Structures are given as structure tokens and as C-alpha cells.
Amino acid sequence: MSMFMQQIGAITLMNIKTIPNRFWETLVILISIAVVIAVLQVFLAMNSGFSATVASSGSDDLAIILRNGSQSELNSSFTPEVVNIIKNAPGIARIQGLPEVSSELYVIVNGTKRAGGDKVNLPLRGIDLEGVALRDNLALLEGRMFTPGMNEIVVGQAAVKQFSGLELNSEIKLGRNVWKVVGIFGGKGSVFDSELWADAKIVQSQFNRAGSVQLLRVRLENPGDISSIQVFIAADDRLNAEVFTEAEYFKQQASGTADFLFYLGWPLAIIMALGTLAGSLNTMYSAVSQRAGDIATLRAIGFNGWAIFWSIMLESVLYAIVGGIAGIVIAYYMVDGIVASTLGGRNFTQIVFDFTLSPTVVLNGVGLAIVIGVLGGLLPALRAARLPITKAFNLNL
Length: 397
Prior knowledge:
This protein is of the alpha+beta class. Helix content is about 50%, strand content about 20%.
């Protein structure tokens, strides 16, 4: 085995030393693999950043209650009577006998992207101060919280960066009225960073919601346990609602967009990889043909055919890894940390997120590069290993 490994090492080293003779062919393959991996990394980084933003938004300590079948808070609606009944449900945490419940509205308003000036849908959340207290990851970064009863909004830090007109102390027209931005908050990378918040009663009044709300956010007595609330709702015919933990709700909301990004990136990369694979095969066949004399000589002096096979496989995989790493570096400098926004979930509003080249994304890129290297080197390596000595000498003539 030791001699076999020494033969592989010696032949591989010899192959690498001949790369300058095939410089341009090798460079084309490296560039092709780098492009394929860079494209894959961009899509997976987008998927990773979007998924991380949504995942950080949900908590098992809280539950979301929506009208049954509404699928998102945008389509849900509760009357004040229903809200008062649900507040008495068991399983909801209480402070001094009062349930920790936030009745909220979710309204779409117009916004403008800083880059390009495109018109987009922004989420305006009508909320009360009890609802603010239910966001454990919230911090007011600048200014102050809105004053109940006033046309004031506070804005998530990601929304300020991505959309124009939301700077502190600026005024913006939302609906029929002008609102003043009095504070900027941070939600530690959650979807709340993309939202605008205002007093729930003012939002009800100015968007003609007549006292209705769209969802209830409640703190659970036991994290993750929504069974008591579900039983309570099922037992009362007046209630037509369904309950999710907040973590489960956001996971469902993001699944469509995250899956789209994931399943768009991989097929596109695979199609491009097939083209790169053809080029890799051609390059390795050419390399084997150019070194036919060397291969014949090695075989004649006793080198094992399988040592030649593995040396060519290692050479092919080495090209792929170098090209793959180049693609990852390109993608890193192109998109890692870039802030972008897209329509997220079922609410048809913008979610701001960062492109993130996570370790999983990088490993996926390296894995695809190795697959290209293995498949690209397999047939040429088999041909070299099985090439008769006399024919190999003739090929080199």
C-alpha cells in the first residue's frame, strides 16, 4: 500500500508540474467552475440570509392567533367581542391577573426603495405598548417610542437603510395622513426590523378598520404549549380561530420564498455545471493524450495502472477545488453582508435581510465543485489506467 501511495504521489506531482504546458485550457476550466460555484453561492446566500432573518423572528414563548383559514395576518380579522373572549383562554401568561396579550393590525402602505426608487409595499403594524413589551429582542436605538393617540411611527433599522423618507424626525404620508418618525428600533435581525409601527387605535381610525384587529399575540404560560388555547377555542362556537407558536408561524410564512430561492439556485447551478463538466472532460482527455508517452513509460517501468487512475482523479479534483474556492471568494466579496429586500411570506410586503455565506452555504459550494471534479476526471482517468503500453507510445508519436 505504501508503494502504491508513493506512486500516486509521484505521478500527481509530475502532472501538476506539466500544468504550464496546458495553462490556458486549465485556466478556462478553473474560471468555468468558479462561475458555477459563485452563482450557486449567491442564491444560497440569499436563501440563508432570508431564512435566518425569519427564523430569528419567532419564539416558542409566544403564540399567534389568527382567524381560521386566513394563512397570514393580512387576511385575518377579529371583532372586539372575539378578542375579549380569547383573552380569557387558559394557557396565556398573566401579570397581576391581566393576560399578556397584544391586539395588532397589519396594514400595507406605499414605500420607495433608496436604490432605484422603485415603489414597494411596506408593512405598517398597529400595536399598543403591551405589544411592544412582548418583543423580547426589541431595542429602541434612536428617538423615542410613539405616543398613543398621535400620528407618530417608529421604524425598524433595516427599513430605514433600505427605504427612503424614514429617517428620524422626518415626515411621511401613509394613507391619507402625514406621520412623523419619532424613533428607530432594532429587532436583532428579525422581520420586525423591516416594519413600521404606530398606535393601534390611530391605525384603526385612519385605515377604516372600525375597532377590528387582525391577530392576537400572546405570551404562553408554558413555552411551546398551545394546547390549552386550542381546546378553549374549539369548545366555543363563537370563536373561529387557529393558534400557532410564533416560531411555527414565521416558519410557515417564509417557507414559500425560502424554498423558491433554494430550488432556483440549485437547478441553475446544476445546468451550468453540466456545461462545465463537458469542458472538464475535454481538458482531462487532452491532458491524458498529451501525456500518453509519460503514461506508457510509467507503466513500462512498473507503475500500477490504478496509481495512474488516482493521480488523474486527484488532478481533476484539485482543479475543481481551486475553481470552487475562487467562486466562493468571488461570491463573498460580491454579496456577503449586502442588505436586500424581497417580498416575504404571504403578506406581500418587503422583508429586509442580509446575504449570508454561512458555513453550510460554503460547504455546499465545495461539495458541488468536488462532484464536478470527480465526474470530470473519471472517464479520462479510466482511459489512462487501461491504455495499452504500445498504444500509449503510438499516441505520443
